[in-house]
Amino acid sequence: MKLSLNWLRELCATDLPAGDLARKLTFAGFEVEGREQRALGPGADVVAARIAASERIAGSDHLSVCQVEDGRGTHQVVCGAQNFQVGDVVPLARPGAVLQGGQRIGRAKLRGVESSGMLCSARELGLSDDHEGLLILPRDTPIGTPIEQALGLPDTIFELNVTPNRPDALSHLGIAREVHALTGAALRVPRPKLAERGPAIEKLARVDVEDPKRCPRYMARVIEGVRIGPSPLRLQERLRSCGVRPISNVVDATNLALLELGHPLHAFDLDRLAGSRIVVRRARPGEPMTTLDGKQRNLSEDDLVIADGEKPVALAGVMGGQTSEVSDGTTRILIESAVFDPGGTRRTSRRHGLHTEASHRFERGADEKMAALALDRCAELVAQLAGGKVAKGVVDRYPSPRPPARIWVRPARVSSVLGTAVSAAEVEQRLQSVGLEKVEEKLSTPPPPSASATLWAVPSWRGDLTREIDAVEEVARLRGYDTIPVVVPKAGVGETAAIAPEQRITRAARAALAARGFDEALNYSFVSERELLELRPDVKPVRVANPLTVEQAAMRTTILAGLLQNVGRALKHGAQDVRLYELGRVYLPRRSEAHPSGDLAWPVDEPRRLGLVAAGHRAPRSWAAPHDPVDFYDLKGAVDDVLGALDVSGTYAPAEEPFLHPAASAALTVGGRRAGVLGQIHPRAAQAFDVPATVLLAELDWELLLSQARALRQSRGVPRFPAVARDLAFVVGADAPAARLLAEIRAADGNGLLEEVTLFDVYRGAQVPAGKKSVAVGLTLRAPDRTLTDTEADALIASVKDRLKASLGAEIRS
Amino acid sequence: MIDELNALLAQAKDELSRAGDEAQVEAARIKYLGKKGSLSAVLRGMGKLASEERPRVGEAVNSVKAGIEDLLERAKQAVAGRALEADLRREKLDVTLPGRPQKLGHRHPVSQAMDDIIEIFARLGFHVADGPEIEWDVYNFEKLCFPPDHPARDMQDTFSLEAATLPRPPEGAPEPPTRILRTHTSPVQIRAMLEARKPPIRVITPGKVYRCDSDVTHTPMFHQVECLHVEEGVSMAHLRGTLDAFVKAFFGPHIQTRLRPSYFPFTEPSAEVDISHPLCGGKGCKICKGTGWLEVLGAGMVNPDELAGVGIDPEKYTGYAFGVGIDRLAMLRHGIDDLRLLFDNDVRFLQQL
């Protein structure tokens, strides 16, 4: 909200400089987010001048030469604007004047015509962005008046952030009340003086409220004989400085009263209200109406409207309608000052995408009492600015006035919540400073919560104060949060959280991945549905109803979509080697395994997945190492390391996955359950994601891995007896899986002497018959309790050889 | 004769010091100690000596012999050592060639920060609580005292979800079953309190949150950590203490905090929390708009209505809570000036940190 300090000082006589005021307001909960200096500057010799004559310059399509009077004489000024008439009063920058931005006005010749000075637009004066033409001043502005003085400048404008709980502060009076509470400076609430010289209002208009729930109070006044015209310059500037465009004296009066007192008002052209009637009712389904912004709207039954005898003439609390708009010919007006229900106003405002000064305030809650003051203030302004006779009396449909809220406050509670001693006297003083009144009779309900409690009546404008804690907050806010001490809470014995096993495990896995060269990625949880279906055609993802783009419209069902995008982009940027991992959730439209039901149920299943992608080379390009492309076994090695970090063992078997190459993909099994897949990307998926077909992928079920993991590895001691190492080479069928070979070798070890088997060579080629492969393994043999003899080792090797021959038809080479 | 022996020793010493290789050492050995060597020649002259002189001269002969042997041994070692050194120098490494590279991975700055935060709060006695990102609207708003149709909801633009793509709500789930992408980690407060049933409760809840917003300073997904402490006798002074301890542990002991009154439906009193800008040291710079302070988080005392709503007696127990954007903290720590870099996953960026 924009706040004029000049205006504020009229309502609260503080002499604090702007900087101090900004600090005080900020630390009382009204953050001053910006500050604007409104002034023409000391060198701006700009005065009000009347255009006495004007004539086009021959040969120019837009320039005219004007004779202007500024009280000192008549000057000839060339002007490019079109929006004026002879007789208009406009700002004249005299020769020598320096305008905003340092522009110096001099004498010049344009198209051979002498020009001494410049006629200015609002933008040239630095007052607004309006550059439509000259700033036309009211004709009664005295000629020769310095413009700065006529505008009521200089002024400082604060941009204030008013939180949604404080609609009472959305006005100059509201902030004046705060400044009064913070500084003690006297508050001057406007007291409108009205001469009701017209006929009784009941004879001129009739008001019916059909839905008092949505409209708890409706007040109106009628003024006859108004003359529509511009407002005085000073008031126009006030509106402009608060971001409101001046329109006409009557409309400006409603806006001035709004900005001053915070209560929205609306002026209808009474002659355009059919039957001179106001009916506050729900719209009929589909009922049409054209709002002031010229848009035709189809109304809903939930919309509250102000109707006349026939049709809606305003969207209640949101925006007026075109048919009853005040126009140049208007002479009789009805001013509305009403209170509309916050929730209903908000629904209407959102339904029609209309956020206005009025709806902003009504949806936060309006002050029922302020409706009366604002109406009188508005009528007073109209009478001053547009003349006319104010009809006798007001219409006031107010069937059930809200009684003031009452709060019990215990000073001890204030102290205990704030953690610092606050005296009862201070609590009273603070509450009184913001308009709460102490209620002495103690028979009221609810009963006092303690003997020292005091009962307080809340002023009508503070709808946010309903409970003791609200009063506590007021005291804290007004005395300043910096008065609260800094106390670190003691951690209770045994409460201090140990490093959770899960955290330890995750850290170990991350370290393993870092050692393997995987950088960590963090992608958005939503991606394009098309990409998800490319990878997981079997799962229909949860869709975002209001996504920012279609690329972010579906909740990921696999963690790989984002990673694939990352790889594609990195390679396009010229990266040679890309290895990325992401540990995060996927969102599966099914019942959550971990939190299936009850009040702690999770709406969908959100298991964590570990995704890996790799592309490029095994090692960075270097003179010291071969520059081989990364392959399936690099990826598998990385997965093995993750399992190792978790102290989990897994087995691999060929797998079929829609997004993986059918000949280069594996499924990982841990603890008898499928724990993930890995492999080379399927060429089709590679094409869809625009990545090379050599990209490698893995996606692991992190929840399963965690459930199997051991946070702390256990020591097994160090062997005390020496090992025997033997190598063995043999030829088997080319399609015999390594896992099978290793299993057979293990199975030959009846006495538990085989400590380790390392498969260190696989060879297919010239020296090996077609359809066969040569395999070499290193065996480490050890007994836990003695030194193995050669005889024992020989016997075991022999049994391994026999087993390989018998079960796989292996031909032993050495 | 003794003089002759000493001269011999001196001569051998001089000669061996100049021996360049093993052959010269061997030649010297033969020359001095060989059968026809100098020492044997001296020994042969012993016969001419008087018998009482013989033991003295014999002793001297032995000592000179030992001396020459020692000289020979040393000369041999010296020669071998020189040979080895010369040998070693024959093939030299180019130590200026680059080392053999190995690609190491990097942690994402947000996950690093998250880990640090978890650890800092563990020291303060807080444990990690978890909640879903697709959350019941009721937990994200109503239970946190956001009234329906209240403009406070505008503070958080919400992503809603297509109902037809969601599974049937499970039995016992909150009513109404509207589900959204959580806009803050605060609904985990509700879950943590429903689960614990009884204070003391000290939890932090790091995680992803979503808001329908995207510009230079907003991404539609970001990370928050929520801190909740409910216990008897907990006050706003404890809130300040915990904030101060956290900020100092995360950014350094010189960082100051200050609180400004604000409004969040689920806390009362509520505060915006500024920290002195870690980069300019509170002196004021372009990033902090010359103020020396940066707004980093929202905090407050848990609204008593929220406590009552989960069955905790607000008369007996009080609590404080705060929520902080992890991404922003990570940016501050690493001097990252563009939020969107965090989610582009550009390896050129990731490998810098």
Structural account:
- The complex is a heterodimer of chains A (814) and B (353).
- Chain A is α+β, with helices and mostly antiparallel strands and 814 residues long.
- In chain A, the strands form ten sheets. Chain A has a seven-stranded mixed sheet, sandwiched between helices. In chain A, strands 5-4-3-6-9 form a five-stranded antiparallel sheet.
- In chain A, a hairpin with a 5-residue loop joins strand 15 and strand 16.
- Chain A is elongated, with a radius of gyration of 41 Å.
- The model of chain A has no long low-confidence stretch (mean pLDDT 92).
- In chain B, strand 6 (257-264) and strand 7 (267-276) form a beta hairpin.
- Chain B has helices spanning 2-17, 22-33, 38-44, 54-89, 109-123, 137-140, 187-196, 236-251, 304-309, 326-334, 341-344, 347-350; strands spanning 127-128, 134-136, 179-181, 201-210, 221-231, 257-264, 267-276, 293-302, 318-325.
- In chain B, the strands form two sheets. A seven-stranded mixed sheet of chain B has the order 1-4-5-9-8-7-6, sandwiched between helices.
- The two termini of chain B are 83 Å apart.
- In chain B, helix 1 packs parallel to helix 4 (54-89).
- Chain B has twelve helices and nine strands.
- With 353 residues, chain B is of the alpha+beta class.
- Helices cover 39% and strands 18% of the residues of chain B.
- The chains are: A alpha+beta (814), B alpha+beta (353).
